[in-house]
Write a structure and sequence with these properties.
Blueprint: H1 14-21, H2 24-35, E1 47-52, E2 55-61, E3 64-68, E4 79-84, E5 87-93, E6 96-100, H3 103-125
Antiparallel strand pairs: 1-2, 1-4, 2-3, 4-5, 5-6
């Protein structure tokens, strides 16, 4: 057996493994996606698709929502897949991450957020070099 198909080595819950054993085609696609490199930190996908149970629910093309399938507000599909430019980027089983090729992108966003926060806090703490017109000779 291919080690990529040994679900016990994927660090998944027993319920996720049980669900995947019933879905050999999904398991095969997941094994292929898990072998791929993560998307680079600066990657911006042109097309983002969100699929619930292998059915397209949301499509964004260059930041514009071009397709939106209605669903009930508390619908919680067993499988959620996010695709970037027709490649699996993220796959969850009942909220449990199985494939995560966006980790580097998330880390970059966190770093940029921390840098922005640091920059703002430093500018607030820095002494003002501009003249204070309220106390001038005026």
């Amino acid at each position: 057996m291919d080690p990529e198909f040994n679900l016990e080595d994927w660090s998944l819950s027993a319920s996720a493994i049980a669900l995947l054993t019933q879905e050999p085609e999904i398991t095969s696609a997941l094994a292929i996606a898990r072998r791929k490199y993560p998307f680079p930190a600066g990657y911006t996908p042109a097309v983002v698709d969100v699929l619930f149970d292998d059915v397209l629910f949301i499509r964004s093309d260059r930041g514009q929502i071009v397709f939106l399938r209605p669903c009930t507000p508390n619908y919680q599909p067993p499988f959620v897949e996010v695709r970037f430019d027709d490649q699996m980027a993220l796959f969850l089983i009942r909220g449990e991450i199985v494939v995560n090729r966006v980790q580097a992108m998330a880390e970059l966003d966190q770093l940029l957020g921390r840098l922005a926060t640091y920059s703002i806090s430093q500018s607030l703490l820095a002494p003002s070099t501009s003249g204070d017109s309220s106390h001038g000779n005026g």
